[in-house]
């Protein structure tokens, strides 16, 4: 049995009832709920739809990048920002939005975020140039952060006991699969319609989700807590500076003054964030959590597995379309292998994951994503898409092991009053891993393949992809091994 701080304390344990709900009497049979209402799972449907929408847009533009480059006359740097600015806003503001949700009401903030997200999505489809599209994507990311920062607490308010465990497992599977499914949807819409339809097509779904959310989500009380504005600002500056430095380094070189300035701003802001959180009486992220080795292992794995599993997809899409000369539909079908492996793993291993030690699900799954990246090193000059299949399967299986159990483990790692902050920190680490992965791996690829890669030699493509997969693999394996060590039960010899 795993005796780590993350084991046996999850939402499924029934030890902590949802805030605002009475505890279920011990003598009540779990198979006979007091009120088996037909709409019992509608709040989960609403939150999963919102989760899918906001996370699918982290990757849905990936397969459409070559078409966007042609239609909007966008260079490689602009293409990187079209992908990355959304994920960066999502990761940088997620922790802060959790605090705002506590102060203003989680349902209220979620509904406002979803409404703004809907308008921003429409604005992305109408964008006449790359600059407007990047700005609309930034607004989309800010709104997505408002949604993402409140979703897990809303689920926790609605369900308890075994139902809460099931709800978190379903939510985790949806959250993990969205990144892979986004590539498929983007390819289909781009092939049969045009790239703006990857945004137009979501507007009716956003509107329907908004109506459903207003009707079925529980209205929580506002908490008269002080908002940690300095923490929100410094954390956002840190995430933005570091990611901007990665993108800028690929565009202008690592010794360019703007690159060095971005890294300096990011490092200083990160130090300021730690000092602010230490000094304030109402921190956005209690630093006591960061003194828990198991929680640090969870954050490392969350960042590492998302980077290793999904950070390479934009450059892989460019190779498949501009190097192998596949169409958008064929490219999306190749990438479909990864979400298919993810879904199969989540479905088949769900029961097993609840019976094995937490560290093996999280750390082992992250290691497996890194191994999948290393399997993709089989790409050689003249290779075609079949060489990708083993690596895509392994990265999908690895992500499928981690994602369903991550939110519940994060919330169980903290005292009840800080469980929302713990979940937001884990989700923020996951999204920051994707943002940094897209920026860093795109930068490495760009050293070998200039521009969008159209017309680059097979040798250049192979060298660029090998460098990308090697770096992603090292990060995945290293992050997983670190998590296994940090999440080791106290007193264990090995």
TrEMBL record:
Please name the taxonomic classification of the source: Bacteria, Bacillati, Actinomycetota, Actinomycetes, Kitasatosporales
What Pfam families would the database entry show? MFS_1 (PF07690)
Output compositional bias ranges, type Low complexity.
1-18
GO annotation terms (biological process): response to antibiotic
Q: Where do Pro residues bias regions lie?
A: 19-36
Per the record's keyword annotation, is Transmembrane included, yes or no?
yes
Q: What is the organism field in this record?
A: Streptomyces kasugaensis
* Membrane association type: Multi-pass membrane protein
From the record, give the transmembrane residue ranges: 41-66, 78-97, 109-128, 134-155, 167-185, 197-217, 229-247, 259-276, 297-320, 326-353, 360-379, 385-411, 432-449, 461-484
**Cellular component, GO, one term:** plasma membrane
The compartments listed are: Cell membrane
Gene Ontology terms for molecular function: transmembrane transporter activity
Ranges for domain Major facilitator superfamily (MFS) profile come to: 43-491
Q: What is this protein called?
A: MFS transporter
* Residue runs in coiled coils: none
């Amino acid at each position: 049995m795993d005796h780590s701080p993350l084991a046996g304390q999850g939402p499924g344990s029934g030890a902590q009832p949802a805030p605002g709900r009475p505890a279920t009497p011990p003598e009540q049979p779990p198979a006979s709920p007091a009120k088996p209402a037909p709409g019992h799972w509608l709040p989960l449907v609403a939150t999963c739809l919102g989760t899918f929408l906001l996370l699918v847009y982290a990757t849905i533009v990936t397969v459409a990048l070559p078409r966007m480059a042609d239609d909007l006359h966008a260079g490689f740097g602009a293409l990187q920002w079209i992908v990355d600015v959304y994920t960066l806003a999502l990761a940088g503001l997620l922790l802060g939005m959790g605090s705002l949700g506590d102060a203003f009401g989680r349902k209220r903030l979620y509904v406002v975020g979803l409404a703004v997200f809907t308008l921003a999505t429409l604005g992305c489809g109408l964008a006449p140039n790359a600059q407007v599209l990047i700005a609309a994507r930034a607004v989309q990311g800010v709104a997505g952060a408002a949604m993402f920062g409140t979703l897990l607490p809303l689920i926790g308010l609605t369900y308890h006991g075994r139902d809460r465990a099931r709800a978190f497992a379903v939510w985790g599977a949806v959250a993990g699969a969205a990144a892979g499914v986004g590539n498929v949807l983007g390819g289909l819409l781009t092939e049969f319609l045009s790239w703006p339809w990857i945004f137009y097509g979501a507007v009716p779904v956003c509107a329907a989700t908004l109506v459903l959310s207003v009707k079925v989500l529980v209205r929580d009380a506002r908490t008269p807590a002080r908002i940690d504005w300095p923490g929100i600002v410094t954390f956002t500056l840190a995430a933005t500076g570091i990611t901007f430095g990665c993108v800028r380094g690929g565009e202008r070189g690592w010794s360019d003054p703007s690159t060095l300035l971005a890294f300096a701003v990011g490092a200083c802001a990160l130090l300021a964030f730690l000092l602010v959180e230490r000094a304030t009486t109402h921190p956005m992220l209690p630093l006591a959590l960061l003194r828990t080795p198991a929680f640090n292992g969870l954050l490392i794995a969350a960042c590492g597995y998302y980077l290793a599993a999904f950070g390479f997809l934009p450059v892989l899409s460019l190779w498949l379309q501009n190097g192998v000369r596949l169409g958008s539909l064929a490219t999306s079908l190749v990438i479909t292998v990864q979400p298919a492996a993810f879904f199969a793993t989540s479905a088949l291993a769900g029961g097993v994951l609840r019976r094995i030690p937490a560290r093996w699900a999280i750390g082992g799954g992250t290691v497996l994503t890194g191994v999948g990246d290393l399997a993709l090193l089989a790409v050689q000059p003249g290779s075609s898409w079949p060489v990708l299949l083993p690596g895509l399967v392994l990265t999908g299986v690895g992500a499928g092991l981690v994602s369903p159990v991550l939110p519940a483990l994060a919330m169980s790692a903290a005292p009840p009053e800080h469980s929302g902050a713990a979940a937001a920190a884990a989700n923020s680490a996951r999204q920051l891993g994707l943002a940094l992965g897209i920026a860093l791996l795109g930068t490495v690829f760009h050293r070998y393949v200039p521009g969008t890669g159209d017309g680059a030699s097979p040798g250049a493509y192979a060298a660029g992809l090998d460098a990308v997969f090697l770096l992603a693999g090292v990060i995945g394996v290293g992050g997983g091994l670190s998590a296994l060590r940090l999440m080791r039960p106290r007193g264990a010899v090995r």
